[in-house]
C-alpha cells in the first residue's frame, strides 16, 4: 500500500509538472500575442501621427520681389542655422540651354548624361538676392533648392552654375559676412530622366507659370511663386 501511494504521488507530481509546463507555455503565448498587439498598435499610431504632421505642416507662399525671412526653418537639419538669412527672387526667365551654354563658352556635350540621352531644351534662371542680418556662424544650405510643379522637380544645375560663375566654389550653400548681401543667378535644369521619358511635356510645363521655388521645408515650408517674364517670347 505504501508503494502504491508513493507511486501515485509520483504520478500526481508529474501530472502537476506537465500541467504547469503547459500553463506556462500558454501564458507565454498569450504574453507574446499581447506584446505583438501593443507593437502593432504603436506602429499604427506612429504612422497616423507622422501622416497628420505632414498634412498639418504649415506652408507659407510668397510672391516674387518679396523678401522672405528664412528664420529657424531648414531643409534637412536644424544645425543648418539659417536664422537671420533672407532671400528674394528679383527676376525669372526661361532660356534655351544649348545657345546659352555656347554663349558662355561651354560645350553642350557636358550636359548629356548617357549615350542615348539628349540635353534639356530649356533651363530656368532665377535672379536672387540673399542677405545675412546678424548671423555669425550659420548659412543657407542650397543643396535642396529646386523648382516644383506638382510632382515635377527641377533641381539646381551645378554644372551650369559653375560655367556661369567662374568663382563658384562648387559648395551647396551660402555663408555671408554679417549684414551683407549677395546678388546671383541660380540655374535650374530638368533632370535627364524627365526629359528622356516625357521631354515635350516637361518643355510645355516650363513655359507655364506653375512653378514654386522652395526655400525651406521644416518646420515651415516656404515657397516663392515664380512668374516668368519671357514666357510669351517662348510660346
Which architecture of the largest domain would the CATH scheme give at its second level? Sandwich
Strand neighbour order, sheet with most strands: 1-11-10-6-7
DSSP strand content: 25-35%
Poorly predicted ranges: 3-7, 49-54
CATH topology of the largest domain: Immunoglobulin-like
Helix content: 25-40%
Question: How far apart, in Å, are the first and last alpha carbons?
Answer: 111 Å
List the secondary-structure elements in sequence, H or E: HEEEHEEEEHEEHEEH
3D shape: extended
Average pLDDT: 82
Secondary structure: elements and pairs:
Blueprint: H1 2-56, E1 58-63, E2 68-69, E3 85-96, H2 97-103, E4 122-132, E5 140-141, E6 146-149, E7 152-155, H3 158-164, E8 173-174, E9 180-188, H4 192-206, E10 212-216, E11 220-225, H5 231-234
Parallel strand pairs: 1-11
Antiparallel strand pairs: 2-3, 3-4, 4-9, 5-8, 6-7, 6-10, 10-11
Word description of this protein:
The protein is α+β, with helices and mostly antiparallel strands and 235 residues long. It has two domains: 1-56; 60-234, Immunoglobulin-like (Sandwich). Helix content is 37%, strand content 27%. The strands form three sheets. A five-stranded mixed beta sheet has the order 1-11-10-6-7, with helices on one face. The longest helix has 55 residues, at 2-56.
